[in-house]
Write a structure and sequence with these properties.
The chain is built from six helices and no strands. Helix 1 packs across helix 4. The N and C termini lie far apart (about 50 Å).
């Protein structure tokens, strides 16, 4: 997630797979489509194509998006059905890796810094977030057990 942005010439064979990968951010946690396009060097050309109504570029991009959504949905469904635990571990790793990009205390060169003055507030908010997620996991576990008991009856 700390890759420097690149620039690529917007040819159809670059736009198509880049759009397919970027749209996966809609389906996979921890990814940003804009960030991926920025990393591929296609963010500015894509924004310019949208602003200028470049239908050729946008058509190739839309085709890449459709191919990406279809392949990601089918691939993710298959992975979850056949390798559920491994897939969930990988997705958790992607989310954990994305935290580096989301870290609010960074220099322009992407050097990570500490929270300094607001450490107490940061720890309190982190603890509150942890507690909320823990409560939601407990509620989900109980509802799942109740649903399974109801299905058995």
């Amino acid at each position: 997630m700390s890759l420097p942005p690149t620039s690529a010439s917007p040819s159809w064979w670059i736009i198509l797979p880049a759009a397919a990968v970027a749209v996966s951010a809609l389906l996979l946690p921890g990814l940003s489509g804009s960030f991926l396009l920025l990393t591929f060097g296609l963010y500015e050309p894509t924004m310019a194509a949208a602003r200028d109504f470049d239908l050729g570029y946008l058509g190739v991009f839309a085709l890449g998006m459709v191919l990406g959504v279809v392949s990601i949905v089918k691939g993710l469904r298959w992975l979850l059905m056949h390798h559920h635990t491994f897939t969930m571990v990988v997705l958790a790793g992607v989310m954990l890796g994305a935290l580096r990009t989301l870290w609010p205390w960074q220099t322009a060169g992407r050097e990570l810094l500490g929270p300094a003055d607001n450490l107490g507030a940061v720890l309190a908010l982190g603890a509150a977030g942890f507690i909320i997620v823990a409560i939601l996991v407990i509620i989900d576990t109980r509802l799942t057990r109740q649903q399974k008991r109801a299905e058995v009856r």
